[in-house]
Amino acid sequence: MTTGADADLIERGRKLFAGDWQFIWASPSIETLPPMAGVEVAFAGRSNVGKSSLINALTGRGTLARTSRTPGRTQELIFFEGPKDADVRLVDMPGYGFASAPKARIASWTSLIHKFLLGRASLARVYVLIDSRHGIKDIDQAILTTLDRSAVSYQIVLTKADEVKATEMAERTEATRTLLAKHPAAFPDVLVTSSRTGYGVPELRAAMARLIGEHQR
Ligand SMILES: Nc1nc2c(ncn2[C@@H]2O[C@H](COP(=O)(O)OP(=O)(O)OP(=O)(O)O)[C@@H](O)[C@H]2O)c(=O)[nH]1
Ligand SMILES: [Mg+2]
User: Fold this and answer.
1) How many C-beta atoms surround the C-beta of residue 108 within 10 A?
2) Which of 35, 51, 207, 216 is deepest in the core (most CB within 10 A)?
3) What band does 1 get if pLDDT is binned at 50, 70 and 90?
4) Among the atoms of ligand 1, which is closest to the Cα of residue 129?
5) Is the Protein transport keyword given for this protein?
6) Which pLDDT tens digit goes with each residue over 55-88?
7) Which CATH architecture is the domain 7-216 placed in?
8) 141 among the known binding-site residues?
């Protein structure tokens, strides 16, 4: 499947992520964020949806972001910086909806997530990851509502496509599109990915190459 990205963009995306990516900063709170710089792209989503794994798949570096089978792995806003000439950062976010953590911690993560999404001018795009097996839940809607209020452009990425049959995937994608009609600030189109197989990863890289191109103009 192609998601509309042409060969030139796919190549630009490939080059962007073939460059050197490294960890630069971890913020446990809104007060400790790095100074705003360049183009920032954040990955949000429920705990365990595959945010950190997708960052690893994009950068081709299997251990850049810490992943875990247990929800609640990423507990801070983690910043990764791309090649110097690109001036781009990826932000791995803590997951939301992690029910078995202490209440105070859930509240503090949730507040950090919403504050970051509302108040970060250098944030150029947020990818909201949704598990292909589950689709959009109420807890995701809260994030979409926050994003509707912020000026940042955002897009839904269905993850773990390898876990779902093709027919079910098509239904889930369609249902997700239908739900998005209620969120005019969202990209109407939905990306489908698997960090395990690499499905959809070149298209996501291409989308980011396009975004950076738009910001450098
Ligand atoms: N089958 C399959 N499993 C995946 C995929 N991506 C991630 N996983 C698994 O899902 C689990 C969670 O992955 P993470 O990348 O740590 O998820 P996260 O969203 O960063 O989780 P938190 O940091 O806890 O919010 C791990 O066991 C991964 O191996 C995928 O594309 N396919
Ligand atoms: Mg994580």
Assistant:
1) 16
2) 51
3) very low
4) 19
5) no
6) 999 999 999 999 988 888 888 999 999 998 889 9
7) 3-Layer(aba) Sandwich (3.40)
8) no
